[in-house]
Structures are given as structure tokens and as C-alpha cells.
Amino acid sequence: MEPNGSGSDASRQVQVRFVTRPPPPLRVPPASMAVPSHLTRFGLSDIVNLLLKNSDPDHENQPFDFLIDGELVRMQLDEFLIAKGISAEKVLELEYVKAVAPRKQEDPRPHDDWVSAVDGLIQGCYDTFVRIWKSGDVSECTHVLEGHTGAITSAKFIDIRGVENEQNFHLVTGSKDRLLRLWKCDAAKRRGDPIRVGAYKILAGHTSSVQSVSVNPSREMICSGSWDCSIKLWDVKESEEDGDGNTISLKKRKVNSKTKESEDARLEVIDVLNLMNI
């Protein structure tokens, strides 16, 4: 590590050759040179910028990252060589590239309580609200859906044929308030602050918390599961009309024995799965 035999840190030098893939004007002369071994990428950047300015007086200083054998140098040169077992007696090829500033970490989006349901850009929360977010360089809340009186447990987009378009979308939510609500949002209306949206239909029928919701786009139906030990199917074909939704009941078969009752129970489950295309 000490070609000149000196024990001083300031006098320790290594022979390097700066190379890069970008074409001129970011390419320095290929000749090797001696640099202090204690330099970090910041000191090496100063040298590269000085060489570039000698070739082009209009060059503006910029930070660079440096690689040796394809690995970024994130410490002093001498420390890196020792850590990687690389000899300092040979000419080192230092590849330099434009340093990319790390992307600024966005602040977490605040909620007043736990986020309990997510479907794409929909977020349901224990604060009883559902929020819809717009993706991009900076995420922002575009809609706040209000009306539930209990924690949100499930939220899903639904496809209502004939009314869906890029600016118009529907969704369904389930809550600990034992209700499902249908919502219609118009993205084109947003100007500034998030739009407050109320449900256009309430689906009542469960006697305990609604825990999960599944949507069957092809049949325009919704399936909900609840802590009341029931699964309900909801017909939302007429979802644009106000009022309560219609549940789909399965006709119960007559049974003559416990065995027959068990078989019919399995058949009813199969009927539900077929209706939902599962």
C-alpha cells in the first residue's frame, strides 16, 4: 500500500486510470495517474471534474460514483482495496458514472387509525373512511368515502357493465357496522381537495360484522361473508337505483335423513361457487 515506502497517510498513493462508458464531453484522458489512497468518491469526483474542466472550461461540476470490478466504492480507496484483497501495486481502473441522487422518501400518508383493507388504490381504515389514491411521482388522495359507522373490513372495485369508463368507477365496501355500501366516483370532478362521496346504495342483511367481500364482474354480483356465520349474494344489476340491494337466496331442498341433509348442504355450497364463477 506504500509504493514510496513512506508511513505517512498523506503520502500513500495508488496508480489509477479513470474510465467511463459515456462519450465525450464526460470522458477524461486515459493516462494513469497517482492519487492519494485515502480519497473517497467525493475526492475522486473533484479530480474527475478538474480533468473535465481542463478539456472543457464550460464544464459544470457534478458528483460521480466509482466502481472497481463492477462494485461501487463506498469507502476510502485504501480501505476498499484491503477489504476486497486487491493489490495496490497495479494500475487500478476506476470506472466513473454520474451519481444519481436517491429518490426522496415520501412521508407516509397519515390515517387516523389502522389501514384494514386495500384493493389497488383503495384503502379502507378503522376510522370508518375509505380513501382512493392517485398514483404518480407524488401520491395524493382524490376521494374520501364517508358513511360507514364502523371500521372498514373490505373494499373492492366492481364492474357495472354499461356505466364504467375511465372517469367513472364503482366500488363496494364492507364494515363492522354490518352493512355493505355501494359507491360511485367520478374522477373528472376532482379539483383540489379530495372529493367527499356518499354511498348511493346500502346493502343491509347481516346481523354481525361484514368481514369479507368478493365481486363477480361477469355476473354483476357481490358475495359477502360475516361473523353471523352467513354468506350472502347480492344482485347489483340495478345498482344505479337508490334503495336496498336484493339478496339471492338458494332454494332449500327437502331432506329425509341426516346423510341427505349433509349432501344438500354441499350442493348449496357448490351452487354458491358456481354463481360466483369460482
UniProtKB/TrEMBL annotation:
Domain NLE positions: 14-81
Domain of life the protein comes from: Eukaryota
Keyword hit for Repeat: yes
SUPFAM superfamilies per the UniProt record, alphabetical: WD40 repeat-like
WD repeats: 203-244
Pfam families in UniProt: NLE, WD40
Gene Ontology terms: cellular component: nucleolus
InterPro entries in alphabetical order: NLE, WD40/YVTN_repeat-like_dom_sf, WD40_PAC1, WD40_repeat_CS, WD40_repeat_dom_sf, WD40_rpt
Keywords in alphabetical order: Nucleus, Repeat, WD repeat
Subcellular location(s) of the protein: Nucleus, Nucleolus
Broad class of the protein's primary localization: nucleus
SMART domains (UniProt xref): WD40
UniProt name for this protein: NLE domain-containing protein
Organism encoding this protein: Rhynchospora pubera
